[in-house]
């Protein structure tokens, strides 16, 4: 959300599930408005979730992440985040909220930043789901920026719900002056083991 360029976000992800712990490493490639591709760093994520069946419809977990992103994309090249996962999964409807805290590990500013996101999706019954996603960049928790300087995005998104790949595509609109006006995203993932696991991540 910190890029000043209009970018296509294309993370290439690999997943490994070990019981209820998911390890994911993500390599970021960005394509700017001129069509040029740029290396945009990597992220390592570990996801811990309460086993399915603990509650009938509610889901709970947490993501822990360490990232190295170039300064042209995010202010701090090294960072980490804590991403709580709170969700509801019905027969057709899914709703998830991630109240994220991001912690810069390099640069002069080391205060945690609040970056909430949410997802609402409807299962069409045709192997894919459609819905809305929200992403926010509120800023440092000790000095919340004015709304006009915050970043808020609303996406129309679709997910592939069956098949060999995890696929999420969306087109988003920036709701504030500090946001990019239009953003297109594409997330492709591949699980390396056949063990089925819940898809809690808002990408």
Describe the fold and architecture.
Strand 6 (93-104) and strand 7 (113-123) form a beta hairpin. The chain is mainly beta and 203 residues long. The protein is 0% helix and 60% strand. It has no helices and twelve strands. It has strands spanning 8-18, 21-31, 37-49, 58-68, 78-89, 93-104, 113-123, 128-137, 139-140, 151-160, 166-174, 182-191. It has an eleven-stranded mixed barrel. It starts with 7 loop residues before the first strand and ends in a 12-residue tail after the last strand.
Pick out its properties.
203 residues, mainly beta, 11-stranded mixed barrel, disordered N terminus
SSE order and pairing:
Blueprint: E1 8-18, E2 21-31, E3 37-49, E4 58-68, E5 78-89, E6 93-104, E7 113-123, E8 128-137, E9 139-140, E10 151-160, E11 166-174, E12 182-191
Parallel strand pairs: 1-12
Antiparallel strand pairs: 1-2, 2-3, 3-4, 4-5, 5-6, 6-7, 7-8, 7-9, 8-10, 10-11, 11-12
**What share of residues are in beta strands?**
over 45%
- SSE order, as H and E? EEEEEEEEEEEE
Helix content, binned percent: under 10%
Roughly how many Å is the radius of gyration?
A: 17 Å
Distance between the termini: 12 Å
Characterize this entry briefly:
The protein is mostly beta strands. It has strands at 8-18, 21-31, 37-49, 58-68, 78-89, 93-104, 113-123, 128-137, 139-140, 151-160, 166-174, 182-191.
